[in-house]
């Protein structure tokens, strides 16, 4: 990935880039600037926290399993052994 | 698709056998991926009946087109692409789905934060509850989550599900949905921000 020079000037810039990588594991210059801003800004801290929680809440929704009727129909159509 | 690495030798061997018409190998592939395909169908199609239809159609397509899989992309990328086509294809031309998600400014958000006389930032964006999320989750929140994702246009929903639920990279997501990487990033941003706004009244402390 090429390092682009992106100026992080204010909260709007942080909000625009906050989503690319919610964990900021990447040690790019942009991420370091974002981290620096967030560490000093209560609003961006609250915003980032709520974004992370949004994603985590979706992870808590149980995954659907294939209904046995749908599986039976598929195996029949494709003539597969169970 | 954690724990289901595909470019290992065993996986490819299975695909090669299935491509040559080995029914048992094909059955093992179906068994391995039926939950993945169904889960993604439900999350993107939403409607139960359509999801079951997409599930059936996907494996029929896989059966017919498996010979065309050349192993240059990940098998999962190829598979997700087929599911996405089955869920989104019929809708892609509809004008409704071209509508983008409004990116509303979060409550209390300012480009430049307010500061006190000592220059410290005054918090205007409300924090969310600090209660552990599994304890916050209840039937009401489940309903709010469900309604929020329902409101997203399907193509935004597909980006959100692939990136944040299925944990596919931006590059794989772009290949699956035939979008550019910047388009994936901007849709993901909008989808997450939209979902956050929908949850905010319930989640703010
Ligand atoms: Zn800020």
Q: Can I get a quick summary?
A:
Chain A is mainly alpha-helical. Chain A is 57% helix and 0% strand.
Tell me the overall shape of chain A. Answer: elongated
Number of helices of chain A: 4
Give helix % range of chain B.
Answer: 55-70%
What summary fits the major beta sheet of chain A? Answer: none
The rounded distance between the terminal residues' Cα atoms of chain B is 34 Å
**Strand tally of chain B:** 0
Characterize the largest beta sheet of chain B: strand count, sense, and whether it forms a barrel: none
Number of domains of chain B: 2
Identify low-pLDDT runs of chain B.
1-6
Radius of gyration of chain A (CA) equals 22 Å
The CATH level-2 architecture of the largest domain in chain B is identified as Orthogonal Bundle
How many domain regions of chain A? 1
Q: Which class do the helix and strand fractions of chain A yield? A: mainly alpha
Q: What is the rounded distance between the termini of chain A?
A: 46 Å
Radius of gyration of CA atoms of chain B, rounded to a whole number: 21 Å
Bound molecules: zinc ion
> What is the residue-averaged pLDDT of chain B?
88
Tell me what the structure shows:
The complex is a heterodimer of chains A (82) and B (205). With 82 residues, chain A is mainly α. Chain A has one domain (11-78). Helix content of chain A is 57%, strand content 0%. Chain A is built from four helices and no strands. Chain A has helices spanning 11-17, 29-40, 42-59, 68-77. Chain B is built from ten helices and no strands. At the A-B interface, helix 1, helix 3 and helix 4 of A face helix 2, helix 3, helix 6, helix 7 and helix 8 of B. The complex binds zinc ion.
């Amino acid at each position: 990935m090429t390092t682009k020079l992106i100026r992080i000037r204010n909260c709007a810039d942080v909000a625009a880039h906050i989503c690319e990588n919610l964990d900021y594991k990447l040690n790019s210059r942009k991420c370091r600037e974002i981290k620096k801003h967030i560490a000093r800004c209560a609003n961006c801290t609250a915003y980032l926290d709520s974004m992370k929680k949004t994603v985590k809440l979706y992870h808590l929704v149980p995954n659907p399993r294939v209904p046995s009727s749908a599986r039976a129909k598929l195996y029949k159509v494709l003539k597969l052994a169970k | 698709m954690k724990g289901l690495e595909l470019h290992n030798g065993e996986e490819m061997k299975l695909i090669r056998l299935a491509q040559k018409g080995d029914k048992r190998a094909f059955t093992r592939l179906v068994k391995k991926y039926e939950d993945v395909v169904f889960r993604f169908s439900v999350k993107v199609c939403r409607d139960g009946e359509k999801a079951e239809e997409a599930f059936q159609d996907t494996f029929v397509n896989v059966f017919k087109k498996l010979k065309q899989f050349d192993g240059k992309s990940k098998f999962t990328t190829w598979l997700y692409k087929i599911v996405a086509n089955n869920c989104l294809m019929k809708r892609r031309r509809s004008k409704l789905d071209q509508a983008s998600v409004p990116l509303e400014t979060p409550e209390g958000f300012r480009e430049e934060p307010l500061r006190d006389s000592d220059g410290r930032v005054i918090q205007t964006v409300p924090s969310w509850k600090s209660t552990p999320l599994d304890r916050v989750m209840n039937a009401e929140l489940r309903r709010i989550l469900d309604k929020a994702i329902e409101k997203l246009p399907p193509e935004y929903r597909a980006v959100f599900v692939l990136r944040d639920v299925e944990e596919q990279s931006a590059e794989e997501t772009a290949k699956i949905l035939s979008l550019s990487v910047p388009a994936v990033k901007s849709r993901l941003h909008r989808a997450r921000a939209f979902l956050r706004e929908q949850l905010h009244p319930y989640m703010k402390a």
